[in-house]
Amino acid sequence: MMGGHHAASGAAAWVAIASTGPYTLGWYPLDATGIVIGGMATAGTALVCDWDHRSSTVAHSLPPLSNVIAVGIENASGGHRQGTHSLLGAACFVLLAAMAGQVQLQTDWGLLSLGAGLLCMFLINIAAKALKLFPNYGWISNWVFALAMAGLVTWFAPHQWTWLPVSMLTGVLVHIIGDMITTGGVPLLWPLVIKPPRLLRKLPLVKDVWKANGAFSIPLLGRAGSRREWLVLIPVSAYAMIGMFGAALALAEAHFPAAVALGTGLLSSLFGRLTGS
Hints:
Number of strands: 2
Largest sheet: 2 strands, antiparallel
Shape: globular
Radius of gyration: 21 Å
Strand order of the largest sheet: 1-2
Number of helices: 10
Distance between the termini: 46 Å
Strand content: under 5%
Structural class: mainly alpha
């Protein structure tokens, strides 16, 4: 699955589990702030699995630090679509998020989520890079944006530290499932690699589901970037955008009611003129 689609599906999954409105699951309910921050973070956690080779978009998100991390993950996981796309890899990412989430500091100004801020400095920037919010060249704007997001998350993140590992678990599972429903498949049981017997590799159904390299696939979307993938991800992306916009609007109404009322009035007036009513 393409990087931007991974990010969109991660944000959509967070909206579904953290919101309590219509067409949501509400498994981990949070307020509007938690939905916005968690949505941005989960768009990034849905991409960390691809931080496993030095040429990836993720590796170039915050150079040179992100490049160094990519080399380390690549060496530890065995290369692209290996350890980071497995159940063991998912557990390691969630453990990292759990440890980072508990790094908090109580101050006179409130509780500061230092660990979440540091991790989200990478996560949110990764998502922005995959969604092509930054040009492919240059890195100063990436770092400025990343540091701003780190400060935002440090100050406004939900006080319950568990939101960060939940976000990581959600994003990583969404990524693995997204890649598993393409033809490439994923090595779910890595480092244990169980290859199909030679006789079974020629059977039409088996060779599509149980790959010769030991990866598992349910290729509902076909190849990455296929037309089917686009048809599925367009409504998924729309769902994420509507959910995030709704939460952001609720925040604005709570903190800047006058500005929201003014903006709503101007839009209503403009729409009335355009429609002639």
